[in-house]
Amino acid sequence: MNTLDNLTDETVDNIFHITEASPTTNPVFLIIAGIPGVGKSSAHKEAVKRGYIPKHNYATINLDTLVESLKVFRAASSMAHFLKLDGHEDIRFGTIRAYQSKHQDLELFDWYDKIHETLDPQTKKRLDKIRSRYSDATAIQSHSIQELGADAIERAVKKQVSVVYETTLSFNKKEGIVKKIDAIMDLLKDTSYRVILLHIVGPIEEIAKRIHHRQEYQTPSLSMPFYRYMPASETVLSKIDKDNKEAVKAIQTIYPSISVVVMEATMNESRLPKPKRYTLRKQRHKLSTVFGPSRSTSGYSADRSRSSSRSVTSHSKAGSK
Questions:
Q1: Where are the residues of the annotated region Disordered (predicted)?
Q2: Which of 34, 111, 132, 164 has its CB 3.0 to 4.6 Å from that of 38, i.e. a possible disulfide?
Q3: CB-based contacts of 16: which residues, under 8 Å, 6+ apart?
Q4: Strands, sheet with 28-33, edge to edge from the N-terminal-most edge strand
């Protein structure tokens, strides 16, 4: 799939396994909550082992899965990662917009349009070709990624299938609400769903290391690469962790019917993606091969050159946000 318009209801239901899940008389809505990188997706096996959900027959709602399914996201984020490796520490690429935008291309190339004239001719030529593939993908769609996720949850509940919802929570102290959970509980009112909140926690330093290895060494090395940047700073992660814990505490007060279980995740360091050395020339060729059109001409021009064939090791001084 290339752009937001490809995410039809049918496609979303297939991605989230709503289509294949069968209705049950005793459905479970399992919320797996925790900060990014803590191991929410890995917690499925433990949830099955504990009997919270069946082994196969359930839907999984994770907005990251929708974003990562789109080639436009993989292309734009991979371009940002490549330029970071090439020494452009001032790149400002963020993924939050991808979840909220209704534009066909999720407005993911705005950062590139601002800086592409400053690139060396060889890099600019390759990346401009990738950019040109999505130059007309600007039509406004009826739903954002966030709205597609909310609609999918409604369809899953209407079908009465068990659901696993992976998310990070925050508590609005001023309004006294946990917005995501309030919406879900309103939806589940007068249904037979049992609601369980599995709160995944872990040492912040381990989570920071896992995030760094995943985003710098694993996802950019895939055959269809992408770069979902997340600050791997322990200070930033500690703040998110605090917000998440406050939200869980509030949920226990506001919704005593929700069974809350805390699970500590442990990191197996041997399973972390290994550091990789990227040859910029090969990475540039890979991106243009995977994401660029077979034949494309760019209306952009450049007036300076620079050699970019050295090897670099990806590191944590990420400038994209």
A1: 283-321
A2: 34
A3: 59, 60, 61, 62, 65, 152, 156
A4: 59-61, 163-167, 28-33, 194-201, 259-264
Domain range for 83 is 68-140+274-313
294 confidence band (pLDDT: 50, 70, 90): low
Any idea what the Cα angle at residue 61 is, between residues 211 and 25, rounded to 5°? Answer: 140
What is the C-alpha separation between 236 and 201, in angstroms, rounded? Answer: 15
**Residue 199 CA, distance from chain mean position:** 19
* pTM score: 0.87
CA–centroid distance for 158 within its chain: 26
* 132 and 218 assigned to the same domain: no
Sign of the CA dihedral with 307 first, then 309, 313, and 315 last: positive
Same domain? For 165 and 261 the reply is yes
Examine residue 118 and state whether it is found in any structural domain, yes or no: yes
Specify whether the backbone of 98 is left (phi greater than 0), alpha (psi in -120 to 50) or beta.
alpha
CA distances from 147 to 135, 228, 301 (A): 24, 20, 38
Question: Which of 119 and 307 is assigned the larger pLDDT?
Answer: 119
pLDDT level of residue 263 (50, 70, 90 thresholds): very high
Look at residue 79 and tell me if it is in a domain: yes
Overall number of domains in the chain:
2
φ, ψ of residue 283 to 5 degrees: the values are -65, -40
Q: What is the mean pLDDT of the chain?
A: 89
How high is the pLDDT of residue 90? 79
Helices (H), the chain: 9-15, 44-49, 63-68, 71-85, 96-100, 110-115, 121-133, 145-159, 179-188, 204-213, 234-254, 280-291
Q: Strand, helix or coil at 10? A: helix
